[in-house]
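Q: Structure for this?
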Amino acid sequence: MAIDPVTLAVIENGLRQVCSEMDLVHEKTSFSPVISEAFDRSNGIYGRENGEMIAQGELGLPIFLGVMQFATGAVLERRRDLERGDVIIQNDPYLGGTHLMDVKMIMPFYYQDELWCFLSNTGHWPDTGGMVPGGFCSTATEIQQEGLRLPPVKLVRNGELVQDVVDIILNNIRVPEERIGDIRAQIGALRTGERRLTVLLDRYGVDTVETAITELKERSEQHMREVLSGVPDGHYSFTALMDSDGVVDEPLEIALDLTIDGSDAHFDFSRSSPPCRGPMNSVWATTQSAVYVAMKHIFPEVPINAGCFKPLHIKPPRGTVLYAEYPRPVAGCAAEVAQRIMEAVFGAMGQAIPDRLFAAPAGTSGNFALGGHDPEMRRDYIMYFFTGGGYGGYVDGDGLTNGCSTVGISKTQPIEILEQHYPLMFDEYALREGSAGPGRHRGGFGVSYRVRLLRGEGKASFLMDHGRTGPPGMIGGGAGATNKIQVSQGGVVTEPRHTSKGEGYLLTEGDWVQIKTPGGGGYGAVAERDVELVARDVRRSYLDTNDTSSD
Amino acid sequence: MSEWQVGVDVGGTNTDLLFLDHESGAFRVAKVPTTPTDQSDAVMSGLYAGDGAIADLVAIVHGTTIATNSVLERKGARCGLITTRGFRDVLELGRRTRPNNYGLTGSFEALIDRELRVEVTERLDASGRVVRPLDEAEVRAALVRLRDAGAESLVIHFLHAYANPVHEQQAAKIAQQMWPNDYVSVSSEILREVREFERGSTAAVNAFVQPVLARYLKRLGQRLKDAGNDRQLLVMQGNGGTLNASAAARQPVQTVMSGPAAGAVAAAHIGRQAGFENLIACDMGGTSFDVSLILGGTPALSAEKDLAYGVPVHVPMVDIHTIGAGGGSIARVDAAGLLRVGPESAGAEPGPVCYGRGGAKPTVTDANLMLGRVEPSGFAGVSQAHGTEVVAGALGSAVGDPLALDAVSAAAAVLAVAGNQLASAIRLVSVEKGHDPRDFTLFAFGGAGPLHAVELARELGIPRVLVPRFPGITSALGCLLSDLRHDDVHSLWRALSEVDATEADKIFDDQAARGTQALESYAVPVTGVEVFHEADLMYRGQSHVFRVRVDSPGFDADRVATSFAERYAERFEIILADMKPVLASLRTTVIGTRQAVDLSLFGESEVVASAERSRPVYFNGRWLETPLLERDTLTNGLVVTGPAIVVQPDSTCVIDPGAVATVDDAGNLVIEVGGNN
């Protein structure tokens, strides 16, 4: 059956719209600010055979691009007993996941009494138990220390919430009161998808929609092949460095050997470091997803669905840090390791097509988590603060200042909202002067902030990276400034032993934390920089250094 | 006694005016070229062109693109910022976004330069309590420093000012004494809402455009006074209502998108009367193409618009998507050998090549002329138009030669590229929001809209095109149809259960009194005044508010809670019985309903007989002899089969082969576009 171009476009957008509407309901009704303000969630439609991606919301977090189809697929393999009205919950990183905090829900979707597809979503919960509030524990050496690991179990059966499961969950996590709101929000988003998708199928008919899905996949694959054909054939290698795994104080290498062969790309990470003791391991699903996201950043014009992944061949990097198996800890997997995998992809592709690439972006999510008790509000809390950093310079201009992590698209939570929710006060939230990697087109700037605990006690943990080496420049540009963490406890200022990772910092009233995030790498030699731009940067105090203020 | 009113829409290329006497149903239109250096020149000459009885006009309602354009082109005032210590980079850091979800390139410049952002000592906590008092000496020093650095307009923006504006007010008081002008934008006055970046950005947009808009309105007001009219000038707001010039000059951010909003208001009105409630309204003029969606007869509103990347404006406005594509958009071939059209525009001066005003770069209008789709004699205010020979030369050298095409093929290619851009803009507001274009009617207006409408509709699968009687003055008509509107917000940020009914009723009452008083002061004829109250609520722990209508007097927290829960369940299908609602703010809107306009007055005016004319027009690769029909000769009920071209002073409508147009009783052309051929 041939499909006319108008209908094809309408169905493509219609499917995406179903996902966006799910994303919207999820975000607007959530209680976790990580979801409601920072959009750390994703919703999509997945194939009934194996969970292959049919459509996923463009507003969803990029790292879930590949992950969600693997997570859905893994559930299908293990739960043959899914029925109409069920919703599965799971957060197992080894089953197509990321870290434990990304809690997935999967619902079979029936159309006219037949299973037609799966609707799935994931939301970042502020806590799933474990050693530290917030889950970003940098010293864990096994997954049990990181939190509650839910296998695929029925959270909703026959349309009714299974209270037993809910009770187990709420009994094992911090600040359970608001989580029940998040559970409802996440289920609500799936139900919204169910209704919208039914309307779409009613209107265009199953046959037409299925034809369109097949056609869209083929077109997407074709498109990816076209852009890859424009990349010169050859072998390109790049090694990205992580500071340490948080437990053993040695750098980790992510080594990529990339081969471009016609319209296919082969990614081989086998030279990377072996699995690490600390939480900087990546699970296979996240490793693949990171490669997909990186390629999508390089070729944003290629539409997303399972089709465009086909020409990207990733060799399973067994025996490395990028193929974590039970019980390796993985808290840093989605937020940090994935970004370093992408840095390797950018670095290798930059050798092939320097005009389309950019120097390395800050490449750390800057996780700072704080959990404690607010005596005035008489409640427990967990706060997350993720920070942006500079992007790399590129052929047409300087890098962006305070860009979001490359795995994310989440906005920062407004300082005013954070101060409403938590007993904190920010002394500063500023552009980090002097942090940009120099170059013909310099990198963007990182951020510098200092936040003070107003009352009660809190426990701080940090999981960041690029504290030892800054994001590298390209074709002669310099590296961006390294990440810095300082903690003041009772007037004594210290830095974590692992520079960018640390935990167990007990804060009391008046104690503060200062974070400075990396700037982006520079593009081209600094000697080639336009003198007028240098003068402007000086006028704006961009090249000063507010780094000394707290040293 | 006659009561003439006039709607004025200043576009990038032309200034359009519609004069209307409600009493007799008489109307006149005028169109003059926009005068970019001082737009009031064109407005005045347009007013004189409309018969000169300026002194007797009972209402002058103005739509303007000044605010929007000065932000888009970054041509606003040099602004200074005074802000909380530690936070001068809020406007530059934004919310840690990037221009596109995928792709890591692109850049951003804040509206206020880092050199002109000064921090002072002060701090409130999240509940509005003073933690560090405002250091007034620092404010004074900052004012001097900013003034000396050449800042004309000032923003005062402190953290948590939505919860308690005390420090902002204190600083504003000092600024009142020291700042050399009135251009002081206080964040809590512009938008009393939480989220420092969005509130700051909204205030910064206000400050950035204020001197430009205020000077303009003052100049125009003076000229009207000189002409004997001392009525208050009214200005369209982005939300589709109108306010008076002094309120607009105080809160220019409210006029963002005001011209396009007027167009959407008119489109909705015309569509309703013609029996088409779902419209994709497309306004194409000389410089831009604005698309908006009208559902069930009402323009869609949005409270959060990114005016440009990193420049959010959080005031409610008609949801309009704009791209830089119009008749004046310049066609060129870029370094990679690709044909590009726009966003650069030849504007009114020098204008397209065919205007004969010295323009040398070929535009979309020139391409239309080349293909016989518009007449050289058909341009308003153009006396010495160039014919196809000169245009062919320009098209040849800029587009034809690099692409090895003759002038005709080059012109066709320019229209194809432009058409593609227009189609994607329409997809963005329709398809990508989950609407099927096949359920809509394309409402085409603006001087150039009807030129491309049938082709566009076919490309998108839209079955029907509606072209109003006077496409070129639709936005001006919208100005006359818009109700007067005054909005007031009061933030509370308290648990709903703790809000006392007497207190809430008092707040609402004050708001209503202020609004009614404001409308009365406009002294514009209205048929009635409507007041409605709303509350913004959320459940504790959430951060997005949800708006519900509430009754006052007789505010009842329990009833509000119930209706919130119901509306919430309706929208999100989630019931949160155990969560506590928080009352974020109370809002009152006062609307002064304007006299209704029966659009049939536009139908069947004096029908002028004219000689039958025709000429060859290029359609899909071939020339077809095509009749040219004068708009004034088309009687109600007449059926026109394409190919045909309908010409009138303010616009040209192309009815492609295969399309069939019928003239309805309001003089609209209802075109069934038929299939492609």
